[in-house]
Amino acid sequence: MKQIHKYSKQEIQFLRDNVEGISLKELTRRFNQHFNTNLSENSIAAQKNKHGLKSGIVGGRFEKGHIPANKGQKMPADAYERAKKTMFKPGSKPKNTDPIGTEKKLTDGYIWVKVDNQTNVPKVVNWRQKHRLIWEKKHGPIPEGYVIIFLDGNHENFDLDNLEMITKQENLVMNRNKLFKNDKDLTRIGVQIARMLCTTYNVKKSVRKG
What count of Cα atoms within 13 Å lies in the side-chain half-sphere of residue 129? Predict the structure, then answer.
């Protein structure tokens, strides 16, 4: 029987903070990325309905009744001439483009670092999570299927001793069994437990297939 995910207060608050103006698909993607889960859109939709959360959009557009403040208004000729000076030409970059090296705390709760200035590319091309950059600088590229966790739960403690690489499967087990603690040593013990549980599960699965 598939285990039903029990949403924590932190997870519900994340939905409240991120639901507005984005599709269910995007909200589900952000949620799973932030909490390293694999929940379905139906599961997220059920929580939205349960807590009365609305994105404000339907079918990719704002709900009926949402009227832009400037609807029907034309820009005066003199205002247009002034605005032309600040309009961007195709391919140009605004003067306030964040320089490489800029650090920002984004909605996922992590610190991101600007690493490039490419145009028309996904965010992850120009921005990288700081803790992943720090880990890779010391240990090399992070293999696919692995994540970097903060052992003390503090997403701004970038000491190498506070970072640990685990598989997404192990991370899921730790979340489900509440093995993440605010103490490094206790979380390390949780990692060992998760690895043991994953190894046991994978061996049994392999035997069943064999």
Answer: 21
Q: How far apart, in Å, are the Cα atoms of 61 and each of 24, 27, 44, 58, 68? A: 13, 15, 20, 5, 12
Predicted TM-score (pTM) of the model is 0.56
User: Could you please report the per-residue DSSP string of the chain?
Assistant: -PPPPPPPHHHHHHHHHH-TTS-HHHHHHHHHHHHT----HHHHHHHHHHTT---SEETTEEPTT---TTTTPPPPHHHHHHHHTTPPPTT---TTPPPTT-EEE-TTSSEEEE----SSS-HHHHEEEHHHHHHHHHH-PPPTTEEEEETTS-TT---GGGEEEEEHHHHHHHHHTT---SSHHHHHHHHHHHHHHHHHHHHHHHHHH-
Buried b (16+ CB within 10 A) or exposed e, 6-21: ebeeebeebbeebbee
- Report yes or no: 159 and 149 within 8 Å, Cβ to Cβ: no
Residues in Cβ contact with 64 at an 8 Å cutoff, skipping those fewer than 6 apart: 58
80-119: pLDDT as tens digits: 555 555 454 555 455 557 899 999 998 888 999 999 988 8
The one-letter amino acid code at 87 reads: M
Domain regions of the chain by residue span: 1-63, 97-142, 145-210
Question: Residue 91: phi, psi to the nearest 5?
Answer: 90, -10
